[in-house]
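Hi D.,

Good news: the full-assembly prediction came through. Inputs first.
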Amino acid sequence: MAPSRDWYVTYNVIFNWISAQYGVEGLDEYLLQITKRCFPELIQKIGETGLKGIRDYYVDVFNIDGTRFSMKEDEESLSFEIEDCVDYVVMAESDMTCARPCPYYCRHHEIMNSYFAELCECEFSMTHCNGRGQCGWVFRRKGRSNL
Amino acid sequence: MRIADFIVVYNETFKYIYEKDGPQYVKALWKAISENYCKHLERLVEEKGLEGMLEYWGGALEEEKADYSVKLEDGVFNMDMYACPSIAELKLRNKEIFGGELSYCMHCPDLYPPAVGKHGYNMNYHIEYDKNGVCAGRCHMRARKKD
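Then the structure:
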């Protein structure tokens, strides 16, 4: 099927509703469960191929969806610099009130990526996020310093 | 979460909320989506009436590449869905479709009739289920001006 870009707005409505009903901890739990339920093939692939699986997934996602990004990788880490997150681009173009990004919109990246990192004995950190579509992600093997 | 994963996330969200807190909470989420997300539809119906529905569903279903027909006949807006792309997507990806007391397909009658009802229209859905009670991906919707 052909996905509709308006669905980013619906994600936003859902995250807003979940956080209003259950708080941020409830949103985090929802995002973790949704990640586990929706992406079994990806979870298996990351378990088998580690950082390469994460890299392949996001390069594919960003290219298909139209997010501008840059990436660095070495044996121990994988970093993304998100320059223009398409979710925010679409919401900014919308005149609907419900397209105003939920304060917790970006938590889905934190929760999903932290879980993906755990699957391959890595850690995830969001090094910066301005809540407007620019952020930095680092996946690093556990116990390795960034120096 | 990719935009292409939206339908899978939507389906799992309904299941998650249902398992966590029961049908009233799923209905509350649908109400929130209706009240927040259906503003574009509301605007079209307010300005153009049944023609606005034709424009909305013609555009949305064309964008999603659905197998459907829409028409205006004798003051009635008719939408017949022969192969819902959302249900097809869930089947293609081997996802268990939300069903039972509430079903995946029931979200449409909870989203759209309240939105058009605010502008003086009645809207009714007939949803088809397969022999196992699972959403078949076929439905028929009729809308007309309230008496």
